Amino acid sequence: MNINIEWDQYFEEMATQEFTVVDNFLPTALYEHLQAQFKTYLKQDQLEPAGIGSLTTYQINENIRTDEILWLERNDCTPEVASYFAFIENDLIPQLNRNLFLSIKDFEFMLAYYPPGGFYKRHLDQFKERNNRLLSMVIYMNDNWQKGDGGELEIFHNNSEATTIVEPIGNRLVLFNSATVWHQVLPAQKERKSVTGWLLKMPQGLGFLG
Ligand SMILES: O=C(O)CCC(=O)C(=O)O
Ligand SMILES: [Fe+2]
């Protein structure tokens, strides 16, 4: 898989403001493949209500988030998804490590679905008990998103009262620092889909040591 993105400007934004937005992120064929898979899993009712926290504190609380999720498995996926994982591992992670002086070692991705009315209140992505998430990356899958459809991502700036509103339009990537960037998903008026992932400091499963 070939993603020809000129990353310099985005790395610069990561360094200065801790988040960045990249449009037309995935090659069209892969985007369409993920979209088709998403629809199949939804039809098969394979997504489950998402929880909050990790390990001992894991709980489902609909006052905080109302999305449904399905983890993408590395050892049980289509060749297209495997090629996406290869790109993350062999291309994106080494570039991020080099340019942002990180030491990302692993990743995890899930499909996330917000039904109409869905939201996720202000939070940080890094769990207290499992200090393993370095960067969050969300790819939106909403082909015909329009103003009024809701479900925008609101990012709270760290050095001011300002916030940035990111519209969840199809094939847009938002990348941000998991430990420091507070954010929330505003109520969706229509169904809202994303492929959401995290780049991890330690191999999956070892995070509780961190
Ligand atoms: O979908 C988004 O825009 C953000 C989702 C999110 O904050 C999360 O899953 O932790
Ligand atoms: Fe989040």
UniProtKB/TrEMBL annotation:
Domain Fe2OG dioxygenase: 100-201
Cofactor(s) annotated in UniProt: L-ascorbate
Keyword 4Fe-4S: no
One annotated GO molecular function: L-ascorbic acid binding
PROSITE patterns: FE2OG_OXY
Keyword annotations: Dioxygenase, Iron, Metal-binding, Oxidoreductase, Vitamin C
One Pfam family, short name: 2OG-FeII_Oxy_3
Gene Ontology biological process: cellular response to hypoxia
InterPro entries: HIF_prolyl_hydroxylases, Oxoglu/Fe-dep_dioxygenase_dom, Pro_4_hyd_alph, Pro_4_hyd_alph_FE2OG_OXY
Name the record gives this protein: Fe2OG dioxygenase domain-containing protein
Organism: Parvicella tangerina
